[in-house]
Amino acid sequence: MRYLLRKLGFYLVALWAALTVNFFVPRLMPGDPVEILLSKLGQHGPVTPEMRASVEALLGTNTGEPLWSQYVHYLGNLLHGDLGTSVVFYPASVGSIIEQTLPWTIGLIGLATIISFLAGVGLGTLAGWKRGSWLDTLIPVTTMFQSVPYFWLALILLFAFGSIWPVFPLNGGYDVYNVTPGWNGAFLGSVLYYGALPAITIVLSSVGGWMLGMRNMMVSTLSEDYMVTAEAKGLRPGRIMRRYAARNAILPSVSGFAISLGFVVAGSIVTESVFSYPGIGSALLQSVGGNDYALMQGIFLVITLSVLAANLLVDLLYSVIDPRTRARS
Amino acid sequence: MTMTTELSEQAINQNPEEPIKVRRLARNKKLLAGLLIGGAILLFGLIGPFLTQDPRLVNDIGLAGPSADHWLGTTQTGQDVLAQLAHGTRGSLLVGAIVGLLTLLLSAFFGVVGAYAGGWLDELFSLFTNVMLVIPGLPLVIVISSYVPDKSIWLVSVVLAITSWAGSARVLRGYTLSLRSRDYVLASRVAGERRWRILTVEILPNLIPLLASQVVFAVIFAILGEAGLSYLGLGASGSFTWGTMLYYAQNGLALRLGAWWWFVPPGLMLALFGAALSLINFSIDEIINPKLRHQTRADRKSWRMSREQLHKAKEATL
User: Fold this and answer.
1) Distance CA B196, CA B191 (A)
2) Average model confidence (pLDDT) for chain A?
3) Using CB atoms, which residue from B139, B225, B255 is nearest to A300?
4) H or E element, residue B255
5) Which residues on neighbouring strands pair with residue B74, listed in sequence order?
6) Do A144 and B225 touch (CB under 8 A)?
């Protein structure tokens, strides 16, 4: 219980830090983002006083209002879920755009990351178990894939399987012309078909890291005394590998999973830009391209919140699979 | 520690043909391959820009394949790809070097000093590190860099360093915590050594391999991060890096037009340099953690001393 409270406390502090960073970044930067944003909004239609107030709460004002009252105002707006109005997708609100794009990203990135994690841990277990086998010699090759930048691998795969051999579609999230979004087979099939190549890219470039980490932990675990005992007891090799070695060796990989989520999100932004995938990364880039500061801040906040939530989840899971973390605190 | 065993082994070998350490390092194929590839790219980045043409020089032979005049062909506006690659290598390596150095300083400060001091300072530093760790880096970099219209390569590097040091600080903290309670550290404390001396003379040398591998990681992440940022069009303005080359190649439709000589070389350089650094990192890992060393039966046999060496060893101990 104390462990749980400690963790929750930490994530509250992290959440506060993220909100504060989000508050200060536009205020500390040179230039006047509020005027840029308001003049852009003005090109689309009349700027109501409410819109002006919400933009000022988000990005800062020149009216000489003290910083702390701006801060309180900003937190209040966030509590009401008011993230302002987007310029690029005028007149949609920032909240509604995030609502539309977030499921795409979570679907693609989440699934691809879980597949990559499971495959990497499984292969790493085997490679560590049979050291010096062909699987073990494969590891440098997969880490080579890892040092290839996400987007370049994506470009090459797109060039090969989109242009030369047109197996996969070049861009987009689903077949816009022939299917209607909704819970029907045609749409889901189209989503899977369009998501396959981006997912393959993510898996290819991240599986090596999991494999290497798991392999190294397996090798260290195999030299523990309890492994010798297990073998002396005459247990089946499969049982030793899974229940004795892999179960202990997987712990650092699980805690690494939490840390890697931030990098996964970062990679996804670039991947989405290569495949023009309709996720939150593409929306972020569009907002950057159009100086849409309100949307940009909102998306940064949502990305940070998702990473924090995922981290919290992994931490709770970790306390279940490793009883020592509970005992220590 | 290793130094003393090395010396005594050499003392046993009355006439060593070459020092054992060099021979052992040279036998480490991963380290050798990594150093060779990394060194070649480093040299290319240092010397290349002096030997190639002006990378900005516009020509009327646009998008031509490799030829005698242009070894790697030309871009859409007839600029020499090889010259751009040389300047891009220099730019990317500069980013890597700056971020590596800053990460070293920041992570050593927050990781080592906090863990060594202990108490509330450690709690504070570790909280700060963990918060920085869970705030996703690249989105923050994108947000910051979109507010600044004219960015220098230095600014981009500093922003990358600020968002990426936390991971290695956490690793260093964990290791320092285990070091500070070792017997020899306690002994030197009892012997009345000053705290900064214990930190710099007793603890820091043991952290060097770990620091080295963390810096290598930081350099990889920085170069990849900068490439991603530049590819999105948010990199340093008016400079050449591997990422900006890929950005211009993408915008010049190199992919659709099949101009492989434009988009393959920068990506390949990125991949090769990344692979070289990871190879170096593997071998550092293997030096720190002997369990990871690949030991085949033949390897173990080669450790055996020859009859002559055994004889001499026996004489030396008598």
Assistant:
1) 14
2) 79
3) B139
4) none
5) B80
6) no
Intra-chain end-to-end CA distance of chain B, in Å: 23
Q: What is the percent of chain B with per-residue pLDDT over 90, rounded to a whole number?
A: 5
Joined together, the tokens standing for residue A235 give: 């247990």
Q: Does B275 touch chain A (CB under 8 A)?
A: yes
Read off the DSSP letter of residue A87: S
pLDDT, tens only, B137-153: 778 888 887 777 777 88
Q: Helix/strand/coil (H, E, C) string of A101-159?
A: HHHHHHHHHHHHHHHHHHHHHHHHHHHHHCCCCHHHHHHHHHHHHHHCCHHHHHHHHHH
ipTM: 0.73
Q: CATH 1.10.3720.10 residue ranges in chain A?
A: 95-291+301-321
Q: Where do we find the tokens 């990192």?
A: B281
Residues of chain A found within 8 Å of residue B250, distances taken between Cβ atoms? 155
Predicted pLDDT of residue B6: 41
Integer CA distances (angstroms), A65 to A34, A57, A84, in order: 14, 11, 20
Instruction: State yes or no: pLDDT of B240 exceeds 80.
Output: yes
Nearest-Cα residue of chain A relative to residue B135? A304
Q: Which of B8, B30, B33, B36 is nearest to B21 (CA)?
A: B8
Residue with tokens 């107030």: A53
Q: pLDDT tens digit string along A162-174?
A: 777 777 777 777 7
With 0-12 / 13-18 / 19 or more C-beta atoms within 10 angstroms meaning exposed / middle / buried, residue B273 is buried
Overall residue count recorded for chain B in this entry = 318
* Cα distance between residue A263 and residue A202, in whole Å: 11
Residues B18-48 pLDDT 10s: 455 555 555 677 788 888 998 999 898 888 8
Residue A26 corresponds to which tokens in the numbers above?
């536009």
Tell me how many residue pairs between chain A and chain B have CB atoms under 8 A apart.
153
For domain B41-313, give the CATH superfamily: MetI-like (1.10.3720.10)
Give CA separation, B78 vs B241, B250, B256, in Å.
Answer: 18, 16, 18
- B278 contacts in A (CB within 8 Å)? 143-144, 146-147
The model's pTM: 0.77
Most confident option among A121-130, A131-140, B252-261: A121-130
Interchain CB distance below 8 Å, B289 and A296? no
* DSSP sequence for B115-183: HHH-HHHHHHHHHHHHHHHHS-HHHHHHHHHHH-SS--HHHHHHHHHHHHSHHHHHHHHHHHHHHHTSH
Q: What is the pLDDT of residue B8?
A: 42
CA distance B145 to B234: 7
Nearest by CB: B137 against A26, A266, A296: A266
Q: Is the CATH number of domain A95-291+301-321 3.30.110.10?
A: no
A284·B139 Cβ contact <8 A:
yes
CA distances from A192 to A73, A83, A102, A214 (A): 43, 32, 17, 29
Top residue of B28, B125, B131 to mutate, by most chain A CBs within 10 Å, is B131
Residue carrying the six token digits 């523990």? A224
